[in-house]
Amino acid sequence: MMVRKLETSILVLFSACVLLAGCASHDNETEGAYSAEIAQLLDENSSTFVKNVLADRNISDEEAEEARSKYISCLSENGYETQVITDQYGIKQIDTVGDVPLQVEDKCSVDTRDVLSLYDRMRENPQNEDLDDVLAACFVRHDLVPKDFTGKDLKTLQADLPTFSADNQCDKNAQDYYQCLEAQNAKINEKIANSEVPTIILPGGRELNGNDPEISHCQADPQW
């Protein structure tokens, strides 16, 4: 279920998918960069697992692995086959056989989504900088763009990309909440399928949203 973000092609503003990526090469120490987000999670999330993981303001590789295992076990108990795969950039992803209903997804990720989402952000952006700046620096580091290319330039290039969002908010207290989410996802996916996405050419000639392997490497692992 690996989905790259707006850098790849389009900015999708509504998603029911849970980010479950992670890199098993190092621990993610915040050094204060994510202290505000961690404090908010500790304040708002009642999960004992989340509180135990974030107690030291750090998410270790082992803790991320435990979160993946919890998620996979829950899906398995609900009849969905899953496995952890490592992509060509060394990043771990959850691979699910078939579509998991959002209600099951929500249930199984309640203790893990915040941990794994934050773990992935800390991996790709350890100083919690503007992600466009981090990506631009990766492009420059590998001579994919001119040396003076910046995150601001990247934002300008992406400004014309189409965006997609839900027409209405679903009421979490309504009986048909998950049916509403499923319907919204279907509409958004249809819009995406029927939209023409302009090709973005970076200074120097590389395609930002094409299949350039080095551009894709930076997008998957901005610390490369």
In short:
The chain is mainly α. It contains nine helices and seven strands.
Describe the structure.
- There is one protein chain.
- Helices cover 44% and strands 9% of the residues.
- A hairpin with a 4-residue loop joins strand 5 (82-86) and strand 6.
- The chain has a 3-stranded antiparallel sheet with strand order 2-6-5. Strands 1-7 form a two-stranded parallel ribbon.
- The protein is globular.
- The protein is built from 9 helices and 7 strands; from the N terminus they run E-E-E-H-H-E-H-E-E-H-H-H-H-E-H-H.
- Among the domains are: 1-8 and 15-126, no CATH class; 163-193.
- Helix 3 crosses helix 4 (102-109).
- It is mainly alpha-helical.
Q: Please give the oligomerization state of what you see.
A: single chain
Helix content: 40-55%
- The count of DSSP E runs of length 2 or more, i.e. the number of strands, is 7
Order of helices and strands: EEEHHEHEEHHHHEHH
Mean pLDDT metric: 86
What's the shape?
Answer: globular
Class computed from helices, strands and strand pairing: mainly alpha
* Low-confidence runs of at least 5 consecutive residues: 1-29
Radius of gyration: 18 Å
The strand line-up of the biggest sheet is 2-6-5
Give a quick account of the main beta sheet: strands, pairing sense, barrel closure: 3 strands, antiparallel
